[in-house]
Design a protein that fits this description.
Layout lengths: L4 E2 L7 E3 L2 E3 L1 E5 L12 H10 L4 E5 L28 E7 L6 E8 L1 H16 L3 E7 L5 H4 L30 H15 L6 E6 L9 H14 L9 E7 L13 E5 L5 H6 L6 E5 L7 H13 L4 E5 L24 H15 L7 E2 L5 E3 L4 E8 L3 E8 L10 E6 L2 E8 L10 E5 L2 E6 L6 E8 L2
Parallel strand pairs: 4-13, 5-8, 8-9, 9-10, 10-11, 11-12, 12-13
Antiparallel strand pairs: 1-2, 2-3, 6-7, 14-16, 15-18, 16-17, 17-22, 18-21, 19-20, 19-22
Length: 452
């Protein structure tokens, strides 16, 4: 089957297995493959059961020490001796987190078997995998654990600093190692339809040169030149919002982190490519915080949302980890199911025919209430209303929506439970119509379709 691709009718969205697709998930912290103790079968079953279709993995060139970022049960922090990565272990002891040092000249067949199995099982579960190739080293303790650091392998005798690892002229032999690893991963996953490649997680945090990122983009593209269908390539552009300038022509997806409010979608919509919000999770533990971000992002025209869910940990691959209050973010079975409601809501529309509703065409005078929406003029409308996090009692608000002349069916959706109101009939003479929402305390959604 063809890999997930841009939808030919509307490349702001995806086409996968013959169906228009948005990617929505609440997923583990990227260690499902590199952490040898993580039961990814149970994890992928959990995503599918909750109606989610996406996950994100790191390759193993980067991992984290226990306690990094105050994350308990961090799947990116394998136990001593339990890191798996593309490179095989040597016969020499001395890796910083237990076991033998790595040999950057040999591949670990067990790792690639695990990687292939993970992607295959994800495909069976209806889950699309983002394979994130590299990550910068935020602190010395992350670099101290990387197989690429000279002290952790038997190949390197150059002392490259963590800030020079990803460069074209300051990384010694590591550029060739990175290119070789990229080609190997691409070759091993050839033929899988449920993945795309992201070049690097948060390159902007350590000012990784765009020239290096474009070098790896070229490597991925060249490695797939003789294939039937290339996989999509994404760039992680910024936290919050930024305008992407002069993107590489091989890049098909632009990802952002912590994209609330979803202004970055509008800033980049004219690129004609999917815009993603592929990491959240550092702004408290309330489900509403992340549910709101997800709904607003997709209703603003985004195509991908990935919440960083801390309920997944080794031994709790079913999403049952009771994380402490010190955790930087949240996650819950309720949130996962609520995001499944969002995914089904969007999929219920012919959304590839829709575009963001201009802000002056959907408004409410209610204080502290924001509105976002998609429309195909005169045919179908999806609208989302959300209050501030400190909103008080539930209230009904008047939504002002510019509608053409016609007859319409209206139905309100409770974003927490999936409960829908009975269908209301509207005959409209054209222009702005005032619609009263059911009382809500946090958020509510509205579906409008032309009556037949």
């Amino acid at each position: 089957m063809r890999p997930i691709a841009l939808h030919p009718e509307n490349p702001h969205y995806f086409l996968w297995r013959g169906q228009p697709t948005v990617l929505v998930t609440s997923a583990e912290h990227y260690g499902a493959v590199l952490n040898a103790d993580f039961d990814y079968r149970a994890y992928l079953d959990c995503l599918a059961r909750d109606g989610l279709n996406h996950t994100r993995i790191f390759t193993g060139a980067y991992c984290e020490p226990t306690g990094a970022f105050r994350i308990s049960g961090n799947t990116l922090a394998p136990a001593p001796g339990r890191l798996l990565c593309p490179w095989a272990r040597s016969a020499e002891p001395g890796y910083a987190n237990g076991g033998n040092r790595f040999d950057l000249g040999r591949w670990d067949s067990a790792y690639f078997e695990r990687l292939q199995d993970f992607v295959a099982i994800a495909g069976e579960a209806g889950v699309v995998v983002e394979v994130n190739l590299f990550c910068p080293f935020y602190r010395d303790e992350m670099w101290d654990l990387s197989p690429m650091k000279a002290s952790n392998n038997i190949n390197g005798d150059e002392q490259v600093s963590k800030d020079d690892v990803y460069s074209l002229d300051r990384s010694g032999d590591l550029l060739a190692v990175q290119e070789s690893m990229t080609r190997k991963v691409v070759a091993e996953l050839r033929g899988c339809d449920n993945l795309f490649y992201e070049i690097m997680n948060e390159p902007y945090q350590k000012d990784v040169p765009m020239a290096w990122q474009e070098r790896i983009i070229d490597v991925v593209a060249a490695a797939e030149e003789d294939g039937d269908e290339p996989h999509l390539i994404s760039l992680n552009v910024a936290n919050h919002k930024e305008r992407m300038q002069d993107p590489h022509p091989a890049v098909s997806l632009f990802n952002f982190h912590y994209a609330w409010p979803p202004d970055t979608v509008g800033l980049n919509y004219d690129l004609g490519k999917p815009i993603g919000d592929n990491e959240t999770g550092f702004v408290g533990q309330l489900d509403f915080t992340y549910r709101r971000e997800a709904w607003a992002f997709l209703m603003a025209g985004g195509a991908l949302y990935n919440h960083l869910d801390y309920t997944f940990a080794v031994g709790h691959e079913d999403g049952s980890f009771d994380y402490p209050e010190t955790q930087p973010g949240g996650g819950s079975v309720q949130l996962r199911r609520q995001l499944g409601i969002l995914a089904r809501f969007v999929q219920g529309f012919e959304f590839v025919r829709m575009a963001p509703i201009p802000g002056d065409c959907v408004t409410t005078a209610a204080e502290g209430v924001s509105t976002f929406g998609l429309r195909e003029g005169g045919s179908q409308y999806a609208v989302y209303l959300c209050q501030e996090e400190d909103a008080g009692a539930a209230q009904s608000v008047q939504l002002q929506l510019d509608l053409p002349t016609g007859r319409y069916d209206l139905q309100w959706l409770d974003t927490k439970t999936g409960e829908q109101t009975s269908i209301e009939k509207l005959t409209h003479a054209g222009g702005v119509v005032a619609l009263a929402s059911p009382p809500f305390g946090e958020d509510v959604a509205l579906c409008i379709v032309a009556s037949t």
